[in-house]
């Protein structure tokens, strides 16, 4: 079970995370980027991360109160209400904090990312199986969030990759830890530094993605997987324990890596920051262009 790292101010603005609990299937569905009525930038803002952490803690409390500790496996599904899964870290915030020399604030953000990531991997001992449903591009921290989950279901046409090297940084919120559980370290390092956006079909062949389904069928594929998993809930719980025993993921490991990420970020020169800021403007233009269509959903 995770240990809370930090408690940032909790915003009471419109929710960016839509949480749906299905008691019959013992499943919690968490949809990022729920506030689609405005030109919203679908990244990991502090507001979204805070709401994700709150929801994870609420699910954990519900599991702790379960009168039947031998009950079958519980599922946590991470998906998106946007046309992308997630475009990664809040680059606008990064640029502002780095230029202002605010290492402590950047570290606070990074620690929040790590706690949310760790909870996706191990929310409550062995009782939760997490599923990422990637219905659009997952970049940077969005790719990391999918990798934290036990199963990745991706829809055809989506792409996943790490663009951080474009501004001379590396993905530091779980990429190495979780990607090396799926591919060899040398492959993971190449993927973290080549800035490629990999088609999910290629990632399936590599073993990074578990399932690729036609566009529009990701959520139904998750429901079918959940139904199958309920029949082997005891085995899945045992496998969660075995996985953690043989190849453990610890909060301490994730924190050490993200501390190095913060140090590397604070060393960025003006050229790297300008590249980051150009990416911010490109993402903002994309969000503004997509906003009218999203309001019709």
UniProtKB/TrEMBL annotation:
Pfam families from the entry?
A: ECH_1
The alphabetized list of GO BP terms reads: fatty acid beta-oxidation
InterPro entries, A to Z: ClpP/crotonase-like_dom_sf, Enoyl-CoA_hydra/iso
Molecular function (Gene Ontology), one example:
catalytic activity
Name the family. Belongs to the enoyl-CoA hydratase/isomerase family.
What's the name of the protein? DSF-depemdent system protein RpfF
This protein's species is: Lysobacter enzymogenes
Which taxonomic lineage is given here?
Answer: Bacteria, Pseudomonadati, Pseudomonadota, Gammaproteobacteria, Lysobacterales
């Amino acid at each position: 079970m995770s240990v809370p790292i930090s408690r940032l101010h909790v915003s009471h603005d419109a929710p960016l995370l839509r949480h749906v609990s299905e008691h019959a299937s013992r499943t919690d569905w968490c949809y990022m980027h729920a506030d689609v009525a405005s030109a919203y930038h679908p990244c990991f803002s502090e507001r979204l991360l805070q709401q994700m952490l709150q929801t994870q803690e609420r699910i954990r409390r519900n599991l702790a109160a379960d009168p039947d500790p031998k009950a079958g496996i519980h599922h946590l599904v991470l998906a998106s209400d946007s046309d992308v899964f997630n475009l990664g870290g809040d680059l606008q915030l990064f640029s502002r904090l780095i230029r202002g020399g605010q290492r402590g604030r950047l570290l606070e953000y990074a620690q929040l990312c790590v706690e949310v990531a760790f909870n996706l991997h191990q929310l409550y001992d062995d009782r939760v199986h997490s599923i990422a449903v990637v219905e659009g591009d997952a970049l940077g921290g969005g790719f990391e969030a999918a990798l934290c989950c036990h199963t990745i279901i991706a829809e055809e046409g989506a792409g996943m990759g790490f663009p951080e090297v474009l501004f001379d940084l590396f993905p530091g919120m779980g990429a190495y830890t979780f990607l090396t559980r799926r591919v060899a370290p040398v492959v993971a390092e190449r993927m973290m530094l080549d800035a490629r956006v990999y088609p999910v079909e290629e990632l399936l062949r590599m073993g990074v993605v578990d399932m690729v389904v036609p566009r529009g069928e990701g959520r139904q594929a998750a429901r079918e997987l959940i139904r199958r998993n309920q029949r082997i809930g005891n085995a899945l719980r045992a496998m969660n324990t075995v996985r953690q025993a043989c190849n453990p993921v610890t909060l301490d490991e994730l924190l050490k890596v993200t501390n190095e990420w913060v140090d590397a970020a604070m060393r960025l020169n003006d050229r790297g920051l300008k590249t980051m800021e150009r990416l911010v403007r490109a993402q903002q233009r994309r969000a503004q262009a997509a906003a009218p269509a999203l309001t019709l959903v």
